[in-house]
């Protein structure tokens, strides 16, 4: 396999021929073979070994084996011992996940410290087949079928196209010694089940199963990339930034085919999974809302509004008598003035004697009514919002300045008749919205 | 499974609730269950049964069983016996492929005759898993992983989301009888190997393997559709129709990423498989050519030229003295005239006495030289072509009118000095290119 490996390195990973390279070595067959192959190509990698102390003496013997190998092959060795069991006790996740996190975290540290430019792992074709089948069984979609990435800077996996069988043959032909990991037989139930019972039978279905599999995942990766280009293009045509969220034009959305695929790709990244409901929403009533754990999607007349959940501040803020400046949640300035000047956007003049403290600053609530200035009588706030053609999110973000619970000002929009300046007003307060 | 089936029909195949429907019935469990399910939904399908006579008495007994079932359930039956073995002897392909072709051909006939609007087959989830794994082992790419199509008008496959296990349970619960196909155990080696040894183990990897698998192939289908949209868009931007082929702008092609994916999708449909070579060609010398079984792809300076192989006519046509009209391969008219008129595109005046018959009409060949009118001396034809900035295909399609083997006219482009009209010319022939 050396000639094929050489060719693969030259065509896919030429960078490791001229940059410091480190191998993540367990002492098992795969990483020992990878190291040996590199040495044959006159690449002298440094080695990084993790001792997770999960198999007692065996773990220590692995570390010892790697240390001897480094000495024998004259390679720089970085070795680290982890208190994995203790760390697991203090954290969430399986032992496997924790060990993986520790490993990659340390590898990145070594890279950051300039110990190497690249870090190579010895993942191979059979690891990839196992990963493929595990993801197939879990239904994780195309992403799960793409296999282990060949490069994920600074991590490179140059053994990925080679099978365990090829690696074993190479190891034997070169009389390499390695450590058998006893956990192979029990540690990872699913993987071992596939390795010993399913993969061998699958491979018997076709004499070229291995290269065919490699070709398939390469092609799937490309299809995914092409699909992503189309998704990005379509998203750019439908989505408009809107504060910390997006407005999405429904008409453009509905022109997309297959719509279900676009909806999945557009909204899955925001935590949504109810794509059928989203599709129905497009023709549904305005105001309809669907939530994910992090976002809300609201049907407005011509658009969907997509916003982070936390944007709607539902707090009721109290404003004590004598307050001159309010900074949060919005900027308001209160001044005593002698007379009212010309009307001005963002400014309201109030008859101070009509106010009851504390004032409150809050969002709309069910049943709100007010007496819009310039109109006779009262109006439901919801009716006012509707007449103003405010979209659902704007409604929810609209602050109301209240005297106790009576609306004094739909802030920045309309004052209330009950608090306006009249010929009998003696004390005037000018409220200015600072934006 | 009846409620799930009902819901599936209502949401995915509402058309069969209101149109004549036929079931392709073998007499095996799957097609018997499908028929029974439809009857429960008050759909009375007609039945179509093929007797391929491949299993002697068993085949006849299957036909008899279906006939009795049709009578018992009061369904219209169409039944046809095929001389499959004889047809196989006369044709290429495996028995299985021939039987499939015969079956679908006959089904289409029945539909064309108006016997039904739709034809339903009983393919199910486990058929789909088997097909997926067979294609995975063959490396047929994403297309092979999409599974059996749910609809391929007029054929519909409403059992696809249901597993063999569910179908078996339904059959038992409803005390249905069916015919076991003895060939299941031997006929289709690969499929049975998967069915009995691989699928059961895969399903044990995850309790929701079946629905997860359904979701995966649905998602792969959508990814493929999205990728296809991008491919079509990119193709439209790079390809320009050019006669019976295409000109493809290299600069635009090179701007595409991942280029390998686009090259695959652009050129695979024309029979190409040498995508690495095509990629190299983009920066290669003009004139470089790659062929598929049906097409040639030629590097020109700024474009690739893609053309069917048969467009280049390499024949050398002879033109006898006295010919006045030539129609094939191009239209030429020969007239004796008294005098030469003003120069005109597509017209050449020749000194008749310089010609030696038969004239020939042919394409360029190695070593061609001529004496371009208006120039002193001779010139290599290849140099002339180059100076005229003719692309490779234009060169190859350029006809040359020759006197025996001497070039008289680069047809439509430039006459030869040796044959031109001089003060001493006595007989003039006017040659006109008819387009």
From TrEMBL, chains A, B:
Span of domain Lysidine-tRNA(Ile) synthetase C-terminal: 359-431
InterPro entries the UniProt entry points to: Lysidine-tRNA-synth_C (IPR012796), Rossmann-like_a/b/a_fold (IPR014729), TilS/TtcA_N (IPR011063), tRNA_Ile_lys_synt (IPR012094), tRNA_Ile_lys_synt_N (IPR012795)
One of the protein's GO biological processes: tRNA modification
Keyword annotations from UniProtKB, A to Z: ATP-binding, Cytoplasm, Ligase, Nucleotide-binding, tRNA processing
Gene Ontology CC annotations of this record: cytoplasm
GO molecular function, one term: ATP binding
CDD domains: TilS_N
EC code(s) of this entry: 6.3.4.19
Catalytic activity annotation: cytidine(34) in tRNA(Ile2) + L-lysine + ATP = lysidine(34) in tRNA(Ile2) + AMP + diphosphate + H(+)
Subcellular compartments: Cytoplasm
SMART domains referenced in this protein's UniProt entry, alphabetically: TilS_C
Residue positions binding ATP: 26-31
Family matches, as Pfam families: ATP_bind_3, TilS_C
SUPFAM superfamilies for this protein: Adenine nucleotide alpha hydrolases-like, PheT/TilS domain
Family recorded in the similarity comment: Belongs to the tRNA(Ile)-lysidine synthase family.
Domain notes: The N-terminal region contains the highly conserved SGGXDS motif, predicted to be a P-loop motif involved in ATP binding.
NCBIfam families for the chain: lysidine_TilS_C, lysidine_TilS_N
Function: Ligates lysine onto the cytidine present at position 34 of the AUA codon-specific tRNA(Ile) that contains the anticodon CAU, in an ATP-dependent manner. Cytidine is converted to lysidine, thus changing the amino acid specificity of the tRNA from methionine to isoleucine.
HAMAP family given in the database record: tRNA_Ile_lys_synt (MF_01161)
Protein name per its UniProtKB record: tRNA(Ile)-lysidine synthase
Upper lineage: Bacteria, Pseudomonadati, Bacteroidota, Flavobacteriia, Flavobacteriales
Gene name, Swiss-Prot/TrEMBL: tilS
